Amino acid sequence: MSITAQENDRRLSINGLQKPFALYIENLTVSFDGFKAVDNLSLYVDEGEIRVIIGPNGAGKTTVLDLICGKTRASSGSIKFRDKELTRLKEHEIIEAGVGRKFQNPSIYEELTVFENLELSYPRGKGVMGTLFFKRDEALCRKVQETAETIFLGDKLHTRAGLLSHGQKQWLEIGMLLIQNPSLLMLDEPVAGMSVSERTQTAELLRKIIKGRSAIVIEHDMKFVEEIADRVTVMHQGKLLAEGSMDSVKRNRKVIDVYLGQ
Ligand code: ADP
Ligand code: MG
Fold first, then answer.
1. Whole-model pTM?
2. Confidence band, pLDDT 50/70/90 cuts, at residue 15
3. What single string gives the DSSP state of each residue in 138-160?
4. Which residues have CB under 6 Å of ligand 1?
């Protein structure tokens, strides 16, 4: 019997509720020429949860995101998201399954405005809606405006993206994900290079957009992690070192030794 079923049973008996996890990662391993960048990792993320992954450089954090979004193929193990086995899907199918990923460096179009960047990310209507231009345009404008407001760029719709601050560019990229309405958001070091106030705003932003979704965030800024994390997973040498609340992880001897104490 797989751990999936056991885990589910355990949760049902604890909660007395039908509340399965959104994301199940089980015994996930990837080797690059014999080197295991991710080594037998199991991880379960709840619906509505913000999970933060921390750990030293080279621990395998980014590789976990690569595996979830299909950029890297697992050597073994399973990744299930809302009952879909992602390890068997192509990258575009994983996106269609509701998984959205933001990379470490913003990949926005600097020459285009905030509006145009968001517009380009808006999912293309299929079938009838796609041909009803007027209706589509109306819906698109509303969605772009609403998204821009969420990411604190409501008054910057017609500003060229290249003129935004580094933090605002990061928000724009989060907006470009958000407008696709993903169910699982993955962010790799979203506040790197941001000012203190931008970090606080980003925490607020994540709290605001997490309803109805789940998120995996990789981050080194412990103050930020404390503000956003429901639970923290600590990775070291491709393996799970510790997991739990920020408080419990902070007091964990192994975590202090390999990461926090540095
Ligand atoms: P982190 O994000 O925790 O800093 P990474 O996941 O980027 O760590 O990398 C973990 C290890 O896996 C590193 O030693 C890195 O060099 C290696 N690695 C990651 N991706 C590849 C790849 N595609 N080919 C070979 N080695 C890789
Ligand atoms: Mg990384």
1. 0.90
2. low
3. HHHHHHHHHHHHHTT-TT-TTSB
4. 32, 37, 55, 57-63, 72
